[in-house]
Design a protein that fits this description.
This protein is α/β, with parallel strands linked by helices. The protein is built from ten helices and four strands, in the order βαβααααααβαβαα. The protein folds into two domains: 10-70 and 155-222, Rossmann fold; 76-152, no CATH class. The longest helix has 15 residues, at 97-111. The two termini are 21 Å apart.
Length: 236
């Protein structure tokens, strides 16, 4: 953005791994970030750290903690194999379109706010387009491999003072997200300017609730301008 396109200040946003990339920009390059918007809250050392204990969640947020426990108990097998033996899995899914389709479809069904009916959130064209992107480019192995690399090449912080993400941050909280953090944690970890609890939607918010997501992003970024300050109390 700076060296090639010439923007001294710019904004960033994302979910899933995009949220981690966005947070890293707000962590390491806060002076050049107008603001960061994410819809997945997770520590940048997620694969080598731990999530908040139950005591950190308010009574209203206890359901978030329970959701985290359920996710890691029942939905994290993909991560276990991709952080340890990604290449073995890659051969199977790169060789079988049915295998690849079932792998992706299962995640779309269980991680979205679909209540078990995947087509209530995604059309067949949506689903098949996603599968085809992986299939025709033969990039499932790449997508699995960076889990392994993330664990074996741990995140290195630029600073350890709170907030970790110093750029002004907006967060959209979708009720069926796979990892749910307490607001008190977010207020310490991010330079939190904006927080919206959405009525519906899950991990794939940009496909499930695109209008609500874009509307909230616009609301957040309209609060900011080029002079909005990143948090520099801690030596930034």
């Amino acid at each position: 953005m700076r060296d090639v396109l010439g923007y001294d200040k710019f904004a960033a946003g994302g979910g899933d791994w995009g949220a981690l990339v966005t947070s890293q920009l707000g962590h390491k390059h806060a002076k050049h970030i107008i603001g960061t918007y994410i819809h997945l809250m997770a520590p940048l050392d997620l694969f080598n750290g731990s999530l908040p204990d139950k005591i950190n969640y308010t009574e209203e947020e206890k359901k978030y903690f329970e959701r985290n426990e359920a996710f890691f108990a029942n939905e994290s097998g993909y991560s276990a194999i991709q952080t340890t033996k990604p290449q073995t899995l890659a051969y199977g899914l790169n060789d079988s379109p049915i295998g690849l389709c079932s792998w992706i479809l299962e995640k779309r069904r269980t991680w979205s706010d679909s209540q078990g009916n995947v087509e209530s959130r995604f059309t067949k064209d949506d689903l098949l387009t996603t599968v085809c992107i992986y299939w025709f480019t033969q990039t499932y192995g790449t997508s699995a491999r960076y889990y392994y690399e993330c664990v074996h090449n741990p995140w290195t912080p630029s600073h350890r003072s709170m907030p970790i993400v110093r750029a002004p941050t907006g967060i959209g909280v979708f009720p069926n997200e796979v990892i749910m953090m307490p607001r008190s944690w977010a207020e310490r970890y991010y330079n939190l300017f904006h927080w919206t609890e959405m009525p519906s939607g899950g991990h794939f918010a940009s496909m499930e609730e695109p209008e609500a997501l874009v509307r909230d992003m616009r609301t957040f970024f309209r609060q900011l301008n080029y002079s909005t300050k990143f948090t520099d109390t801690y030596g930034g």
